[in-house]
Amino acid sequence: MSDNIETLRRICPTCEACCGLIMQVDRDQKKIVSIKGDPDDHRSKGYVCAKSQAFNYIYEDTERLRHPVKKTTDGWQEISWDEALDTIAAKFSHIRDTHGKDALSIYVGNPLGHDFAAGVYLQALMTAIGTERFFSAGTVDQMPQQRVCWGLIGHEWLFPVPDLSRTELFICMGANPLVSQGSILGTPDVRRAMMDIQQRGGKCVVIDPRRTETAEAADQHLFIQPGTDAYFLMAFANTLFERNDIQLGHLSEHIDNVDELRRAVANYTPESTASLTGVPAETLRQLVTDYCAAKKAALYGRIGLCTQEFGLASHWMLMVISLLTGNFDSEGGMMLATAPTGGFGPGGAGDIKPYGRWHSKVRGVPETCGELPASLMAEEITAPGNEVRGLLTICGNPVLSVPRGDKIHKALDTLDFMVALDIYINETTSQADIILPSTVHPEHSNIDVTFQNFTTRNYLSFSPRTFEPAPGLKDLGEIILELAARMSGLSRDEMDGFVYQGMVDMVIKRAEDDSYPLSADIINDQISGDSSPERFADLMIRSGPYGDQFGHREGISLQAIKDHPQASMDLGPLQQRLPGILRTPGKRIDLMHEVFANDLTRLQQRFEDRSDQDAQSHNGNDMLLIGRRHVRDMNSWLHNLKPYIRGSNRCTAKINPADAERLGLKHEADVKVVSNVGEAVIPVEISDEMMPGVVSIPHGFGHVYEASKQSNAGTILPGISCNDLIDESLDKASSTCIVNGVPVQLFAV
Q1: Cα separation, 662 vs 619, whole angstroms
Q2: Report field, pTM of the whole predicted structure over 0.90
Q3: What is the pLDDT of residues 510-536, one digit of tens each?
Q4: Sign of CA dihedral 476, 480, 486, 487
Q5: CA angle at residue 419 from 415 to 420, to 5 degrees?
Q6: SS3 category, 549
Q7: CA–CA separation, 171 and 220 (whole Å)
Q8: Domain 143-338+580-601 belongs to what topology?
Q9: Among 427, 557, 626, 646, which residue has the fewest nearby CB atoms (within 10 Å)?
C-alpha cells in the first residue's frame, strides 16, 4: 500500500437503492482499499448491503475481459477495437441488406439501467439497426406495470412508489424488498423504513406464498396461492364497494367509470375467492378494514404479481384500489417521484398505444413498449423463412435469465453472427463471435438517471470516475455510440453530434412548454461537463424540475452536484403531481380502460374454471413453482465472485415440512423437479416459511455450460436454472413471461 490514499464518495451501482459509499483508494496501485457506507448520505445514512463490495470484486476480477475478443478455431483471440467494430458493422450490415432489418435482433439486460451514457446512446443504435425484434429483461419482470401506468396515467414509465417515510400502513405483495433492496421502490435499508413505520404506530403486512425476509420483519404475513393475486385484489375492491368506503380524494373530478368498475368486481367476494387464494374471507375483510382505517396507506406489488397468468389484472387492481381510496398521489400512499432530469413529466396526451404496433413472426404476439417477450427469443431466432441471423446482446445473459434458456442456448448456435457487449465469457456470451468488454463502474462516471424516477425520496447523485481505465477498455456508452455510428455510415463525432442535437431540441421544447426563452446558442454557451454524456446530463438537469433553466431562475446544474460535499443531493419528499402530469386524453383516469376491460372475460372464465380448487389441498406430486432471491445475488452476474457464493448452498428447492413428509423427501436430499418442458435435480431445503403446495427455486443459477469461462461460478456453486423448467407461456394481456405459479411435480431421487 502506498501513501497516496484518497477518500472518495460515490453511489453504489449494484441495485435500485443507490446507497452512498465512502471509498478509500490507493492511487498509485489503482486499488480500492475499503468500501463502507456513507453516514452522511441523506438517504442511506451509512447503510449498505453485501452487494456493495461487488464494486471492488468485479473491478479486480481477473476473469473479466479487458480487450475485445473473437472466437477462433484455437479459442478466444484478442483483437483491436477497429477490427472488432469494423467486422461487426460489416457483418450486421450485410445481414440487414440481404435478409431485411428483422434478420437482426437485440437483447438488453438489467445492468444497462445503471449506465446513463449507454442508455442515451442505445436509442441511436436501435434506430441504426432498425429491427423490431428487440428483447429485454423487462418482459420477464415489469411489463404489466408499464402497460397499467400507460392506461391510467398516460405514460408507461410513470411508476407509483410507496411513500414509506409517511405511510401508516404498508402492504407488500409479491415482493421481497429487504433482499432486492427495493425494485421500483428505490430506498436504502427497507428494514429500517419498516421499523420506522412500526415505531410511529403503523403496520406492515406482507402477502406472499413464502414467508420472506420482508415478511419476517412485518407485523403480519398472509400466505397466498401463487398466481391468484388478481382474484384477491378484485375481492379487496369489491369489499370497498360493499363497505361504501370509496374516497376518491383530490382526483375525484378526473376519475371515470367507478360504477362500471363496481359491476366488474361484483362476482369476486372474499368468500368466493378464499378457497382459490388460500386467504380466509374474514382475514381479507379485516385487512380491508385496516386499510380503510389508516389515514395513509400504501399498497405495493412487484415481480411476483408481474410474472403470473394475470399480471396485468393484478397491477391494474393495485392502482385502482389506491385510486378508489384516495391513496394515489397522496402523502403516505402511492406517489410519483420527481426526477431531477425531468423524467416523464408533462407532455402530450398518451394517445399512441405502447403495444401492438408490430407482432412476433411466429406466434403473432404483440409488442409491448417496443419489446417482444424474451421467452420467444428461441422461436424467433429459428423461425423458418424468417430467421434471426444476427444477434447483439448487451449486459444480459438470457440463457440463464429467460424461460426456456436451454432452448435459447441451442438457438444461438444457428445464428450467422453474434456479438455480445459484456465483461465475462458466460453462458450466453460464450456463443458469440465477438465480445466487446466495457469499463466497470470505478472506471467511468455516472448519474443514475433511471432509478431517480422510482425513488421514495427525490434526489440527485453523481459518481465521478475513480480510476482511468486500463489501455484497451472503452466505456459501454462509447462502444454503443461507435457501433451506432458505423451502422449508420457516420463518423463517431457525427453520430455524437446527432444525439446531442436531438437532446438540445428536446430541451428547447421543454423550455417552450415551461414558457421561458431558450436557444441552442444559449445552451452551447452555458453547457458544462467533461464528456458528451456529462453534457447530456447537464442539459437534462438544468431543464428539469429543479434546474436553473440556463439562468432563468435559481436552480441546480451538473456542476452543483459535482460541487456537493456528498455524492447525493437531497431534493425533498415526494410531492403530489396529479392531475398536472396526467398524459391521458383529456387528463382523465379511466378505471375501465380497454387495456383492462378487454381482459375481464379471460379472468372470469379462468376464475370459474378454478373456483372448485382448494388451495389447502395438495395431492400426489403436484406443486407450484415460484422463484426467490438472495441478498448476495444479482440475477446471474455476481456468481463469479468468491465472496458472493461462499457458505451453504442456496440453490435449493424450498418446500413446506408437510409436503416433504407427503413426498418422502429429506432435508438436503436430492429431489427431481419435473415440468411440462424439462426436469432438474436439486437439493431439498425443508422450511415452514413455504406455503404448503409451493416450491421455491432461486433465479440466476445454472452455470453448467462448459464454454463459459467463469471458473468460480461453474465450480463452486453452479446450481440449476429454474428457467429451464418454465415454458414460453405469457400473460396474454401484457405479453409478459409467466414464471410464477408454474405447475411442477416433485419426485424423490
Answers
A1: 9
A2: yes
A3: 898 888 999 999 999 999 998 999 999
A4: positive
A5: 125
A6: helix
A7: 9
A8: Dimethylsulfoxide Reductase; domain 2 (3.40.228)
A9: 646
